[in-house]
Amino acid sequence: MSCSSIKRHFEEERQRGLHFERVIELHHELEGSLAAHRLELEDLKQTNADPSRITHLQAHINDGDQLLQEIKQLHLH
How far is CA 16 from CA 19, 36, 43, 46, 57, in A? Predict the structure, then answer.
């Protein structure tokens, strides 16, 4: 799942009420997505790909990193 899809699912589930197990699943999915994006970014940079593709992918990585930090800062009540 892409970072933007994971973010959408996270926000939807936050509105309904987050469950610990689901947050863990989303966290793992997000880490996997970010790893794949980072590998793709390195490939794009090495092949001198279109700068707009690189910028677009970097924006996805930034969004994913931001969501990852948000998840890590959650508190259980």
Answer: 9, 29, 39, 43, 30
Entry pTM: 0.87
Q: What is the pLDDT of residue 2?
A: 83
d(CA 35, CA 18): 24
What is the Cα–Cα distance from 30 to 26, expressed in whole angstroms? 6
- Lookup: tokens for 6: 């994971």
41-46, long-range: CB < 8 A, 24+ apart: none
Tokens at residue 10, please?
Answer: 């996270």
| SS3 at position 1 | coil
